[in-house]
Amino acid sequence: MKKIFLSNKLFIIGMATGALGGYLYYCFIGCTTGTCPITSRPLNSTLYGAVMGGLLFSLFKKGTTPSQKNKKQQE
Predict the structure, then answer these.
(1) Is residue 15 part of a domain?
(2) Does some domain include residue 70?
(3) Other CB atoms within 10 A of residue 69 CB
């Protein structure tokens, strides 16, 4: 469990940050008429924020390029 968290901690932190941001967006801005599909309900806004936050933060994850993998295999 700890290994899974450590390998995906940036994604998990992004989801938590996005969920908080989505909920705060619903609370302070939101949709008063109820016709907006994302911001009319707190659950929708929170889930959308979590997905967007996770995707945004996962862009900053360091990965190995194919050339780095080849160098490791040659050593």
Answers:
(1) yes
(2) no
(3) 10
| Residue-wise pLDDT tens digits, 22-72 | 999 999 998 888 788 888 899 999 999 999 999 999 998 887 666 666 666
- Smallest Cα–Cα separation from 15: which of 75, 44, 56? 56
What is the residue range of 49's domain? 11-58
CA 24, CA 17: separation in Å to the nearest integer? Answer: 11
Number of domains in the chain: 1
Q: What are the φ/ψ torsions at residue 44 (nearest 5 degrees)?
A: -60, -45
**Global pTM value:** 0.76
Query: Does 74 map to a domain?
Result: no
